[in-house]
């Protein structure tokens, strides 16, 4: 029997994602693959387009899905605009939102050589593959990170460890893992890495949201930094 491609393994992982633990009061889990038929369909088309093989890639690990990016498309750091216009995925049928982090990531991808080249070398995921929200001002739902509450982190820690292990078992490279976030995200990932031995080395990068919000005038400098670090593990295929 032929081995499943990386695409089919990722899709099966996404389809089966489920968390049934107890969350802190006021925190809701966000599972785009269970809540949004379009997200599973569109993300499956994305992975079959770029990961329909068994080549090893390096992981780039974010925090957790946000409402206007992966929370809608099922693809980390890929908002609906980028999914359709840059990746050519027309299976998406939800609202067309704009996520600043996605703007930065896809400018970096463009300068890397385009989507085909980038996704042939890298796989973007999150330390927690499901997102969280809480009620903000005027009762509006806002993003919430796994590390924003100690109680939440402790509730989802085992789920995050298991999710990362399962993805690494697909055949990703473990010599280096890239972490998006030079503060709490890399601190928490490093602690888990010391315990679980996911990667030999973790390299932190400034989070795209931080760059777009606070360092917009220096975007090119951060793109250059990303590209310089990624070039160290670039495959020649």
TrEMBL record:
<dbReference type="Pfam" id="PF03167">
    <property type="entry name" value="UDG"/>
</dbReference>
<dbReference type="InterPro" id="IPR005122">
    <property type="entry name" value="Uracil-DNA_glycosylase-like"/>
</dbReference>
<protein>
    <submittedName>
        <fullName>DUF4918 family protein</fullName>
    </submittedName>
</protein>
<dbReference type="InterPro" id="IPR036895">
    <property type="entry name" value="Uracil-DNA_glycosylase-like_sf"/>
</dbReference>
<feature type="domain" description="Uracil-DNA glycosylase-like">
    <location>
        <begin position="49"/>
        <end position="228"/>
    </location>
</feature>
<dbReference type="InterPro" id="IPR032579">
    <property type="entry name" value="Phe_SMUG2-like"/>
</dbReference>
């Amino acid at each position: 029997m032929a081995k499943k491609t990386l695409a089919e393994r990722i899709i099966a992982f996404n389809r089966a994602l489920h968390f049934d633990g107890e969350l802190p009061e006021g925190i809701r889990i966000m599972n785009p693959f269970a809540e949004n038929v379009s997200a599973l369909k569109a993300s499956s088309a994305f992975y079959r387009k770029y990961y329909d093989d068994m080549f090893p890639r390096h992981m780039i690990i974010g925090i957790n899905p946000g409402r206007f990016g992966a929370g809608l498309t099922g693809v980390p750091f890929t908002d609906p605009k980028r999914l359709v216009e840059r990746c050519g995925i027309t299976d998406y049928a939800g609202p067309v939102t704009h996520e600043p982090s996605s703007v930065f990531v896809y400018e970096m991808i463009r300068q890397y050589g385009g989507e085909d080249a980038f996704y042939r070398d890298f796989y973007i995921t999150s330390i927690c593959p499901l997102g969280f929200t809480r009620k903000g001002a005027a009762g509006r739902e806002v993003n919430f990170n796994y590390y924003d509450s100690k109680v939440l982190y402790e509730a989802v820690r085992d789920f995050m460890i298991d999710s990362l292990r399962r993805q690494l078992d697909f055949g990703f490279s473990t010599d280096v893992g890239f972490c998006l976030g030079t503060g709490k995200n890399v601190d928490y990932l490093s602690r888990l890495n010391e315990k679980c031995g996911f990667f030999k080395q973790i390299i932190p990068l400034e989070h795209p949201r931080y760059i777009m919000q606070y360092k917009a005038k220096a975007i090119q400098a951060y793109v250059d930094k990303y590209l310089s670090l990624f070039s160290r593990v670039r495959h020649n295929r």
